[in-house]
Amino acid sequence: MKLYYWCPFFSNIATEKAVINSIVSIKKFSNNKIDPILLDVIGEWELQKKKLEEKKIKKTDLLSFKIIDYLPKYGFLKSRISYFIVLFFSIFKLHKKLRKDEPDFIVIHLMTFIPLLLLLIFNYKTKFILRISGYPKLNYLRTFLWKIVGKKLHIITTPTKSTMNFINDLKIFSLNKVKYLPDPVLDLSDIRKKKIDKINLEPELNSEKIIISIGRLTIQKNFEFLIESFNNIIKTFPDYKLLILGDGEQKKRLKNIIKDLNLENKIFLLGYKKNIYKYLQKAKIFILTSLWEDPGFVLIEAGIMNKTILSSNCPNGPSELLEDGKNGFLFESNSFDDFEKQFFLIENAKKKALFEKKIFFKKKIKEFTLFNHYKILKKILHSNEN
User: Fold this and answer.
1) For residues 59 and 39, what is the distance between their CA atoms, to the nearest angstrom?
2) Gap between the Cα atoms of 66 and 44, Å rounded
3) Coil, strand or helix: which one is 38?
4) Which residues pair with 40 in a beta bridge?
5) DSSP track, 203-215
6) Which of 174, 208, 260, 318 pairs with 35 at a CA distance of 20 to 30 A?
């Protein structure tokens, strides 16, 4: 069985990791009965070349040249221009590839409008699986495209049950086609290796009271809210320091806010880190302030590291993962008062209560291991076999 993965992207994102781990899970558990191949659309996987070689992941270049370095990446308008450039260069190449190779399946993650347009126009022997990566923003065009092409899709998968129910309530696709497929966030053998990787923090960062937050420096992650909330928190708890891991278009803005608040010795923007686990080991609390997440990779990664978690109650992942507060602490999204209230609850909680939340969460995130992902994916690939 030949399985293609389509996932063009412009910068480091969680979906990139999900695709790699999905392929790793297939290679590890399928006994070579499934042959997963990564489509490198615009050169997006070149920076991951070493990792792909280590994992022995096969990829095939869709274009004979790399255009990713020349594409504008940040900002709504610039990213849309890039989408149309990718469409122009890739759509006919993908059509030829599917006609020539006739893979059994293609799983489409990002910029899905390109393969969906092809599926709308042509008939293929290949079965298309639409992976809804993250909480879907349904504008008119996307909803219209999904509705008219839905009958030709083999399966639609969602990363959380909440999103599956959300999609089903909209009645865009046949209910029997929408399936819950948890992301393969946790490669346990890989995590064990990364946990023992030594980290030497700068002297000013060594502290018993470190808060960590991780994500791209974008509006979605809502770091401006986190910085302002932290500024309020340290008036009562001055020993805390905040480390933010990630890069993005808001970096300059966030630096200026930190400077204006005189928090340069309290908040540190450390940039993108390949190994987040060695940083998480130093943390007392992990905080997520996103406006939306689905499911929330960093929550799962913090959970496997036994961290106390404080998260916004945003759609759709955090509430489901934290089971409405059973497995961590949830605050009303964008509410400074509720954020502060929940932080005080963490500080005043008994060790036993915090420990129980961590244990409950670790039981929940077993759904996001490589093996569980493969087990469900295998059922999907073999569903409705002729």
Assistant:
1) 6
2) 8
3) strand
4) 61
5) GGG--S-EEEEES
6) 174
Instruction: Report the C-alpha gap between 17 and 109 in whole angstroms.
Output: 12
Identify which of 294, 285, 292 has the alpha carbon closest to the alpha carbon of residue 358: 285
User: Is-cis flag, bond preceding 231, omega within 30?
Assistant: no
CA 25 vs CA 11, 301, 320: distances in Å: 23, 17, 24
CA–CA dist 74, 284 (Å, integer): 32
How distant, in Å, are the alpha carbons of 7, 50, 184, 206, 315 from that of 214? 22, 23, 18, 18, 18
The answer to whether 74 touches 106, Cβ cutoff 8 Å, is no
Spans of the chain below 70 pLDDT: 73-76, 199, 201-205, 384-386
User: Can you spell out the DSSP letters for 12-30?
Assistant: --HHHHHHHHHHHHHHHHS
Give the model's pLDDT for residue 115. Answer: 97
Distance CA 230, CA 234 (A): 6
CA distance 130 to 25: 19
Identity of the residue numbered 300: I
Q: Which amino acid is at 132?
A: I
Map tokens 């005080």 to a residue: 344
pTM score, two decimals?
Answer: 0.89
Tell me the sheet residues that pair with 312. Answer: 331
Residue 137 pLDDT: 82
Contact 157, 380 (CB under 8 A): yes
CA 24 from centre of chain: 17
Say which residue the tokens 């996001």 belong to: 368
The residue assigned the tokens 């709308």 is 120
| Cβ contact 322:311 at 8 Å | yes
Q: Which two tokens stand for residue 3?
A: 């399985």
